[in-house]
Amino acid sequence: TVWMCFSADTKILTPGHQWEDVSDVPRRDEPLTFSFCQYETDSVLTDFRDSSGVTVTARVSESALFYVRDKGWCALRPSIAAARYGVHVFLFLCPGDLCQPVLFQEEISLESADSTNSSSIRVKRPMNSFMLFAKKYRLELTRLHPGRDNRDISILLGEKWRKLSSEEKKRYAREAQTLAEVHKRSHPDCWKRKKSK
């Protein structure tokens, strides 16, 4: 039995220790709790638990998305998922996250940006180093300062950014550069600007 929190390119390890396409395994819509992952050359080996504690082992792509209760869309490699889908709001999938079954409409709305109808999709540029930093700390600062509006939180983020050491800023810059390189390969037209007359 497989739970439909997986994308179509997922392979499931059967009790007979054979890998099967997720579409060939009987469907059962039940949330799964993420517990473990191991990165391989071109995929990620993952373990999930069902409500009775049974382990489900799946081989997923690096850009695989999971809809997590109380968090929204998450990924094992958010930068790769962002480059594939052109959306930059993915959080890291963490052990203990409860992955929900995905509705057919949600699967359709997250088609890869390189699909046939992508000409109508406007792909955003990847996040810069400050935006990656802000994404990581915005929720934390919002919790530490309840009642503050988004503008106040942005000011606090700017102050925190300015206090970072140059080495910490370089780490975010390297991550942004990696994301930009992946994004450029996936969406080369996104980087072309129209010249104003």
Tell me what the structure shows:
The protein has 197 residues and is an alpha+beta fold. The chain has five helices and nine strands. It has helices at residues 78-85, 104-109, 129-144, 150-163, 166-186, and strands spanning 11-13, 19-21, 32-39, 44-49, 55-60, 65-68, 72-75, 91-92, 98-100. A nine-stranded mixed β-sheet has the order 2-1-5-4-3-9-6-7-8, with no helix packed on it. Strand 7 (72-75), helix 1 (78-85) and strand 8 form a beta-alpha-beta unit. Helix 3 (129-144) crosses helix 4 (150-163) and helix 3 packs across helix 5. The protein is globular, with a radius of gyration of 19 Å.
What labels would you give this structure?
197 residues, 20% strand, 5 helices, 9-stranded mixed beta sheet, alpha+beta
